[in-house]
Amino acid sequence: MTRANAPVLPDGLVVFVKRECETCRMVVPLLGEFEATVYTQDDPTFPDGVDAMHDHDLSWSWHHDIETVPTLIRVVDGQEVERTVGWLRADWQRISGVADLGADLPVMRPGCGSMSVDPDLADSLEATFGGHVLKSRRIELAELDDEMEAMFDRGFTDGLPVVPPTEARVLRMLQGTHRDPHEVVAVVPPDLVPVTVEKIAVNAVMAGCLPEYLPWVIAAVEAVCTDEFNIHGVLATTMPVGPVIVCNGPGTRAIGMNGGGNALGQGNRANLTIGRAVQLVVRNVGGGRPGEVDRATHGNPGKISFCFAELEDSSPFSTLAVSRGFAPSDDTVTVFAGEGPRCIVDQKARTAEELANTFAACLRTLHNPKLVLAFDAVLVVGPEHARVFADDGWDRDRLLTELHTRLQSPGRELIWGAGGIADGVPPHLRDTTLPKFRPDGILLVHAGGGAGLFSAMIGGWANGAMGSQPVTWRVATSGSDRMSA
Amino acid sequence: MTKLLLDPTGERRVSHRERLARPTSLHGQVIGLLDISKPRGDVFLDRLETLLQDAGAKVLRFKKPTFTKPAPVDLRHEIATQCTLVIEALAD
Description:
heterodimer; A: 485 residues; Glutaredoxin; B: 92 residues
């Protein structure tokens, strides 16, 4: 009930009121019947005839978490031992010790909102009284400075405007997690800087996140900063890859993520800002900026943000997260070092066999048809394509098995120079049969709109222990339980 | 009235280090050649090794386990303690 560094309430009975509140006006005549310290929020002369303390900056109300007026509190040895809000006759009689207090008043009457929780004031009060918990350096701007331009000038943005991270906004963002603002979440490459929950919140504000997205951003930052994912290499590479974030679990629906129409595109705040926040953390905290450690030849638009939810409810397949060892009830992020999506078109296939043939033919071309085993892929199966597989009884495992079977190639077609193409595999592999992907190298996800016989594939980067491994991380919506796979 | 924003960076304080003086001669220098494990980096470094040895330098060869990650601390320490100069080869 009482916040840190709160001024100590006087022993005895304490009442918070404001003149604007009808219930307060109803109860103040009773204040003559017992001893109490009265705090008035709006009018210093209220209640008439009572020598009240004027809580002019609402410090007492904020620190003692007054949400409703009137509030009656009993304090013993500086500690609150009892409180009631609004007018509940039985409570007031018990706490005041006056047995017939307000006998002629109604049994109960709800109170009014405390000024300290007025939406117009709450953020600034939070910043004024709670801002000391924020450890980040303060950047002071003159009144005539344009905050948006100031953020650009300091190199804090990804090329798009960011939301200025004021104390009030960052404190509000931190309400999205139970984790301590000062907890170090990860060490962010390339500068290997420890990042706290607070620093992630600052960047999440800038990205445009709502507080309820913060646990997802934190999980994704944790996932990309693992040695397995290797964000250092993903950032530094000349290839056009960045973290692609696939979200699973009931929480994706709770925060309004999009796994349906245009899931990989624009228009959904959660999708766009979660992915963007992760990239801003890498940029601002890790120091990973294009032209510096980021050496991408072309890059891709997904390096601003590439984050979407799996469309789970209507999927004929088990989810990506379940295939990676998590429960359907878990909220997870899976991070994949990927390029931009490419469309797989087949509007004629009506059997799973036919459609698998198309998928395999397209997947074979990934990066270079003659390069095998070097790259993984995310295969985003659209709902209309998924239905074709479901109609023939193919589940996730069957589809992946069929694809891997179709994606075998004779070494002689892949060796350096074969087909007039210099790149490929070394000549000693001429007489072998080589798969395009390693056994777990296709990550199948169900997403997309209800109309359109299309799917999408997202090519990866150098895979395995020598490059980047996909990492799935549980989103901690409370406490700091965590798990990776 | 001023507006306050929070610094989104890691607030790192970078220590300033002076560059070493450029060597006047390669003769007698111990030069580390670091192969980052990109294809054909060795072709480039083999040629450099010959040229440097001809110039009177002693050459030591080192290799990162993978080009995708920074050189391990132990490898960096080894190079720092054994060499007076280092050349890192980017190649493809």
